[in-house]
Write a structure and sequence with these properties.
four-stranded antiparallel sheet; disordered N terminus; about 375 residues; 1 helix; globular; Methylamine Dehydrogenase, Chain H; mainly beta; single chain
């Protein structure tokens, strides 16, 4: 494993070939997969497997788990036997439409075996989720403004699309909201509803999900209306199942929301900036998650290249900013908290590195470590 000191990894990123950046040695630890962008200037080939040592926050690489085109977002089945990936195809791949790939997981070797590939039902799939029973997979399509669902077949492979809907309309920002841009799909805690963040329309649509067929039915009311021009991108529920948080990409802000699970409705109780105080440059927020205790919330900002840390009011669900910390690179498209919640892994797309932060469970604060690992265009990490 090639481990780089935090002070020197930026200088070396342009000169170290991808093949030399890792030593491919298996070891004990938590298995994880990282999806990457492929094509263009990226030398990545697909999905890579690693093991995280939760005692010291270090990674060992198991190498390329599966070669596949631009697996920019990943989702695991509930039994962890199958992994599903979008293939966010673009001009580098000469494809007019995207696809979705299903893999069988070998938990010992970290290798993935392709089950099948199906059309994503849109031109740019960017987010994917598997329901809690492992019967339905849903995909968000940014470029085409589409929402698609699939049935999971008995062998873990995917059916052809069973529900495919292209949203119409636009938002007030002509550069960013010229049309629908569906960016995130989330299952409600009780697995009854599918929530759909639409950056282009400033909506979070809510659907009833039929787990037998994979079909969706609009809720009444059909959507939550975000602040005009804010661009809701990413979403997470609080562990108490009553609160939720939506990260707005264009505004770089967080909506703190109350969730009514009986009615399938969201009510905004707060909107707060995710940016450092005084920052005035361009920025697009990317990812949001709570810790397992529900005491703290984390959000990543591309532009300021920071991770924002918020304390969550345990009576109201509202947020108070307690820290802004450099993401350890540039363009933190995604981050993940490991199962122990001791470590936060930031996938920095443009500097081609995974930066690992130590997390204080009592205060929520993050601390830089020297554990920096290089990989071209990291986009998403999931833990097996």
């Amino acid at each position: 494993m090639k481990k780089l000191n935090r002070r020197t990894f930026m200088a070396g990123i342009a000169t170290v070939p991808l093949a030399a950046r890792w030593s491919f040695a298996a070891g004990a630890g938590t298995l994880m997969f990282t999806g990457t962008g492929t094509g263009g200037k990226s030398n990545s080939k697909g999905i890579y497997a690693y093991r995280l040592d939760s005692a010291n926050g270090t990674l060992s690489s198991l190498g390329l788990a599966a070669e596949t085109a631009s697996p920019t977002f990943l989702a695991l089945s509930p039994n962890r036997r199958y992994l599903y990936s979008v293939n966010e195809l673009n001009e580098y791949h000469g494809a007019a439409t995207g696809s979705v790939s299903a893999f069988a997981v070998d938990a010992q070797s970290g290798k993935l075996t392709l089950k099948n590939v199906v059309s994503s039902g849109g031109t740019g799939p960017c987010n994917i989720i598997c329901d809690q029973t492992g019967r339905v997979v849903a995909v968000a399509d940014y470029a085409g403004g589409a929402l698609t669902t699939f049935r999971v077949l008995p062998d873990g492979s995917l059916s052809e699309p069973v529900f495919n809907y292209h949203f119409t309309g636009h938002g007030p920002n002509p550069q960013r909201q010229d049309q629908s841009h569906v960016h995130c799909v989330t299952l409600s805690p009780d697995n009854r509803y599918l929530l759909v963040n639409d950056l282009g329309l400033d909506h979070i649509s809510v659907y009833h999900i039929n787990l037998e067929t994979g079909m969706l039915t609009p809720n009444d009311p059909p959507y939550y209306e975000a602040i005009p021009g804010s661009g809701p991108r990413n979403f997470t529920f609080h562990p108490n199942r009553r609160w939720a948080y939506s990260l707005n990409e264009i505004a770089s802000s967080v909506d703190a929301l109350e969730w009514d699970g009986a009615k399938g409705t969201l009510t905004r109780v707060q909107n707060i900036s995710s940016l450092p105080a005084g920052f005035t440059g361009p920025s697009t927020a990317a990812n949001v998650r709570t810790d397992s205790s529900g005491k703290f919330l984390y959000a990543s900002n591309r532009g300021s290249d920071t991770i924002a840390v918020f304390a969550i009011d345990q009576a109201k669900g509202t947020l108070t900013k307690i820290q802004d910390i450099s993401c350890g690179g540039k363009t933190p498209r995604h981050f993940a908290l490991d199962p122990s919640n001791r470590w936060l892994l930031a996938e920095n797309q443009d500097t081609g590195n995974i930066a690992i932060f130590a997390r204080n469970a009592q205060t929520g604060h993050l601390t830089h470590t020297d554990n920096q690992y290089m990989i071209d265009s990291p986009m998403c990490t999931v833990f097996v």
